[in-house]
Amino acid sequence: MAGKKLLLENDHIEGIRSLRVYRQHGGYQSLEKALKQMTPEQIVEEVKTSGLRGRGGAGFPTGMKWSFLAKPEGVARYLVCNADESEPGTFKDRYLMQRIPHLLIEGMIASSFALGARTSYIYIRGEYFYVARILEQAIAEAYEAGLLGKNILNSGFDHDCYVQVGAGAYICGEETALLESLEGKRGNPRIKPPFPAVAGLYGCPTVVNNVETIAAVVPIIRDGGAAYASIGVGKSTGTKLISASGHLNKPGVYEIELGVPVEEFIYSDEYCGGIRNGKKLKAVVAGGSSVPILPADLILKTANGEPRLMSYESLADGGFATGTMLGSGGFIAMDEDTSIVKNLWNFSRFYHHESCGQCSPCREGTGWMEKILHKILDGNGTLADVDLLWDIQSKIEGKTICPLGDAAAWPVASAIRHFRKEFEEYVKNGKNIRDVKHYYRLNNLVEV
Amino acid sequence: MSDQKVYRFSDETMATAERIMRRYPEGKQKSALIPILHLAQAEFEGWLSPGAMDYVASILNIKPIEVYEVASFYSMFNLKQVGKCVIEVCRTSSCWLLGAEDVVRHIEKKLHIKAGETTKDGMFTLKTVECLGSCGTAPMLQCGGDFYENLTLEKVDALLDKMKEQGRRRVYTKDDMVEL
Ligand SMILES: Cc1cc2nc3c(=O)[nH]c(=O)nc-3n(C[C@H](O)[C@H](O)[C@H](O)COP(=O)(O)O)c2cc1C
Ligand code: SF4
Ligand code: FES
Asked: Given B36, B116, B131, B171, which is the most exposed site by the fewest CB atoms within 10 A?
């Protein structure tokens, strides 16, 4: 049975990118309802009732975040949409923005009304320039139709929404680095507190939310928070966009009802259709490169033997010992031929490259981890190197300004925790493993 | 620090820059720095020379150092001369799992350069970059404002040949997709 869709229900309709077709399919009715029948406080209440949790990675309850927004008299407030989407394995925001740009714009205006923000910015990664143009086109249409600008739909509410492009830096997805970048500076995360809700953009109270979070506000206003909360399982309410990639038969963006069994998500034809070339599943990174990797048995079933579900709680079941996190929903599947050690080196190289360099544990530690992994891959590693890797990651976690440090540490810890044998194999036999398939070859030139 | 060349935006680009500067509250025009650096890179041969950066500083009425420190932080800004087509191959997770290393090696062989280098004729620069948010259609590369996805080595060959034949510079700020 196909699950309920709230965001991508209409994504295959011809012309849905345009305002005209979007409105024909119910577009901007939530905004109209918000402006004409609801107060800002009522909208915040509905979002709280919905149980919506931030879709950018941390899963923080959105309604609660909104209610923390400081409202000093005479000070501007801002809504900033995080469309930086740089977490490896994540591509759902791009899909949503390029298919149904007006869903995001409608969410931006309605959310800004709820927060009392006169101006909002959509900060989009620079590499998505063509998507930025699609958004700008949609914004221009919205101005033309009186959905943006002064006195929107005769409600007396004024709002301007702008697109801001970045220029290539993963760290700018971290909300305070994003704000620095939006102010025209290097993307160095700020020390918190103060949190953006108190001192964000230009020192003013600011809410930063992910693209998917803001889009989800549209069906929440339309159907009510309770209806949204009735979808999903437990505290994982509503639907979630999953970016599925790696060795899958049908990679792509799927909107799931939270709570779908992982096994069904990987193997059923409705979703990913199983592993390519009839291979076996070896491991999964379930929520973007930052979350712990799990071997096939633990991603399909929890340590207690229960089926693992695609939900915040079920994926985290077992803590870091046997569980992982939903994160951004970047679901990367790896088949039996994948080298976990080389994959880890690839991730560690990424974090080293992307560290902003403010904190020594992150700046130095990520570099050391990359180097040690390189040494192990080259067949020159020792068992002491594996322990050293463990030691370094444990000294980064929790000791840095922003969570990039943790994000660099967790993949290392989990790979060693679950695949230590493979590291030892490289230490013993690395010179011989070196030239064997570490990765897929194009055009089916798989070496055996 | 400036070279001899005189940097000046065309009237059209200047109008775009001014439109961007109006997006921010009074006194916060520095917010326009990254968008305007993109305009400068597109207009001044695909890279940001010290002279080009000084020019951007003068438009925004900020110190040149404020421009240098930002330009050097972000990977999309080239601080050295580049070829007309900068080929940026994603080397991260899903692309790597599906053969990104083969794509890079293939291009290196075909163009007789290593990643990070530019061909002698000034046509191509090869770069490796991190996840571009196109992992479901891996492996992929970006050139200018366009994504080329689900790559095979044949597709890469056809792409490079077409680009060479067309001989145009490709920049982030424009769609200029090569039809294969
Ligand atoms: C290194 C790093 C990168 C991040 N990248 C993104 C990103 O690309 N998109 C995003 O929405 N959130 C990202 N986040 C999370 C944001 O800091 C922030 O929590 C989020 O935008 C809040 O929105 P939400 O509550 O709607 O999820 C990142 C965090 C870190 C530490
Ligand atoms: S943890 Fe890393 S990325 Fe984050 S502020 Fe520190 S050095 Fe920068
Ligand atoms: S891993 Fe290459 S686009 Fe994401």
From this structure: B116
Concatenated DSSP letters for A195-235?
A: PTTTS-GGGS-EEEEEHHHHHHHHHHHHH-HHHHHTSEETT
Whether the predicted model's global pTM rises above the 0.95 cut? yes
Domains in chain A and their CATH numbers?
Answer: 19-230 (3.40.50.11540), 241-335 (3.10.20.600), 340-443 (1.20.1440.230)
* Rounded Cα–Cα distance for residues A166 and A183 (Å): 11
Mean pLDDT by 10 residues, chain A (448 residues): 86 97 98 98 98 97 97 97 98 98 98 98 98 98 98 98 98 98 98 97 98 98 98 97 98 98 98 96 97 98 97 97 97 94 95 97 97 91 97 95 97 97 89 56 38
For residues B35 and B58, give the distance between their C-alpha atoms in angstroms, rounded to a whole number.
Answer: 15
In this predicted model, what pLDDT tens digit does every residue of B4-24 receive, in sequence order? 789 999 999 999 999 999 999
| CA closest to A87 among chain B residues | B131
Ligand closest to Cα of A354 equals 2
Q: What is the ipTM of this complex?
A: 0.97
Distance between CA atoms of B162 and B146, rounded to whole angstroms? Answer: 14
Contact A57, A89 (CB under 8 A): no
Q: Is A46 touching ligand 1 by the criterion CB < 6 Å?
A: no
Kindly list the residues from chain B whose CB atom is less than 8 angstroms away from the CB atom of residue A165.
34-35, 38
CA atoms within 13 A on the CB side of A403: 12
Nearest to A247 among B60, B97, B137 (CB): B97
Task: For residue A323, give both structure tokens.
Answer: 């569980």
Q: Which residues of B touch A89 (CB under 8 A)?
A: 93-94, 131, 135
Q: How far is B96 from chain A (nearest CA, A)?
A: 7
CA distance B68 to chain A (A): 10
Å between B32 CA and nearest CA of chain A: 6
Q: Which of B53, B93, B137 to mutate to test the interface with A (most CBs of A within 10 A)?
A: B93
Could you say which of B60, B74, B134 has the minimum Cβ distance to residue A168?
B74
User: How many A-B residue pairs are in contact by the CB < 8 A criterion?
Assistant: 168
Task: Please answer whether residues A352 and A367 qualify as being in contact, where contact means their C-beta atoms are separated by less than 8 angstroms.
Answer: yes
Whether the Cβ atoms of residue A293 and residue A338 lie closer than 8 Å to each other? no
Strands A330-335 and A239-246: parallel
Does the C-beta of B95 come closer than 6 Å to ligand 3? Answer: yes
d(CA A316, CA A262): 13
Instruction: Set out the domains of chain B in order of their start, with CATH numbers.
Output: 11-71 (1.10.10), 85-166 (3.40.30.10)
CA nearest ligand 2 atom 6, residue: A359
Q: Are strands B124-129 and B85-90 parallel, antiparallel or unpaired?
A: parallel
Question: Residue A14 is which amino acid?
Answer: E
Task: Report the C-alpha gap between B76 and B59 in whole angstroms.
Answer: 21
pLDDT of residue B5: 87
pLDDT score recorded for residue B157: 97
